[in-house]
Design brief:
The protein has 190 residues and is mostly helical. It has three domains: 36 residues; 56 residues; 62 residues, no CATH class. Helix content is 58%, strand content 0%. The protein is built from twelve helices and no strands. Helix 2 packs across helix 3 and helix 4 runs antiparallel to helix 5. The longest helix is centred in the first third of the chain and has 12 residues. The mean pLDDT is 85.
Amino acid sequence: MAYRNRLKYTDELKSDIWNKYKSGESLWSIARSIDRQSSCIYGLLSRTGGIRPPDRLRAATALSLTEREEISRGIAALHSIRAIAAKLKRSPSTISREVNRNGGYHGYRAAQAEEEAWSRAKRPKQCKLALNRSLSRAVEKKLRLRWSPEQVSGWLKKEFSGDESYHVSHETIYRTLYVQARGALKKELQ
């Protein structure tokens, strides 16, 4: 039996699939045009209920690739963070956070920083309680004792003051319990 290589759904390919779907082509003909089964196309389209998701856009306040390249050039020229910020008409704290988040003053690379910023901005993000099982158990234990999410959040910050992976806001606890079926907390707590 011959196996096909896994298809990488690039943004361009997804856009092409959505355009064909909206123009009235059948799932079978769309799938045939990319040499795949119609179930693959169905899986892609059904994630959003057959409604085309909005294109990802950069926030107006986010740094652009051009600005990141200017930061990189400023660092290479040994300019201070404040001098780079003044040239870009940005806050020094914005530039400082950008540099520290992406390799520090001596390891900053514009292209890599741009790629990582784009992936960090991807939504939806996975819930902190779903990622950290021991945090989830600690929250469950306190909720069973009838603590409010605000109390649990405050207790976690006090109890694990040195470990930020155990800090979770009360809004996250509420969202996990009531708004989204995240599966991070047990059903009976709902």
